[in-house]
Specification:
Elements (H helix, E strand, L loop, with lengths): L17 E4 L6 H4 L4 E4 H6 L3 H15 L3 E3 L3 E6 L4 E6 L5 E4 L8 E9 L4 H7 L8 E2 H7 L12 E8 L8 E11 L3 H11 L4
Antiparallel strand pairs: 1-2, 3-4, 4-5, 5-6, 7-10, 8-9, 9-10
The structure holds zinc ion (ZN).
């Protein structure tokens, strides 16, 4: 399982709460923070959260120069991919497809790992049955990660995913998180207006 380069504990891949830090996002000579997966909480504790968030914000602005914005959020639009990239002033960042907004609140569906690669997570769920939704809060407690993942709303379940072809069907078992993405009313309204505009 992926580990945090700062604290060495598991990184689950939950949007807005952990991040893969790239070399240009922090000044490693000044901070001793190595690139790699990291909890956002750990970036705060190392005192580099602001520097990291500003670097990512600048990247978002250059990479997706069309955006909608409010007082403390900016919703970057990737129309060809039908995705939004949400930057928030507190450094919580999320990327999600237009389809997430069919739910209210918006729903993020994140594939965390194949069962074989996420053994610790699969064990912590306490069930081997596909489709059983286990509360994320419960799994985080089992993994002793509640202090790294303050937002514990949502569920995790084993799901079967097809990776084969029509002629050679092959199913793999993956761990999928479903969790709400709370958006400001204004942000949600702007996103809906943008979604329904032609590309
Ligand atoms: Zn960490």
């Amino acid at each position: 399982m992926t580990e945090c380069s700062l604290c060495g504990r598991p990184v689950l891949g939950l949007a807005g709460q952990d991040w893969s830090v790239l070399p240009w996002m922090v000044d490693q000579r000044a901070t001793d923070v190595r690139p790699g997966p990291a909890h956002v909480r750990c970036l705060h504790e190392y005192g580099v959260a602001r520097e990291w968030a500003e670097a990512v914000e600048a990247y978002y602005c250059a990479r997706w120069p069309r955006w909608l914005s409010g007082p403390d959020w900016r919703l970057h639009v990737s129309a060809p991919a039908r995705r939004f990239h949400l930057w928030r002033s507190d450094g919580r960042l999320s990327s999600f497809p237009y389809a997430s907004l069919r739910h209210h609140p918006a729903l993020l569906v994140t594939e965390l790992a194949e069962v074989g690669n996420g053994a610790a997570l699969a064990t912590a769920m306490g069930t081997a049955d596909a489709g059983v939704e286990v509360p994320l809060a419960w799994v985080l407690r089992e993994l002793r990660l509640t202090d790294r993942y303050p937002d514990e709303t949502g569920t995790i379940a084993r799901r079967l995913r097809s990776v084969g072809t029509a002629g050679r069907p092959e199913l793999i078992e993956v761990l999928v998180a479903r969790h709400p993405l709370p958006l400001d009313t204004e942000c949600r309204r702007a996103a809906h207006a943008r979604m329904h505009r032609p590309v």
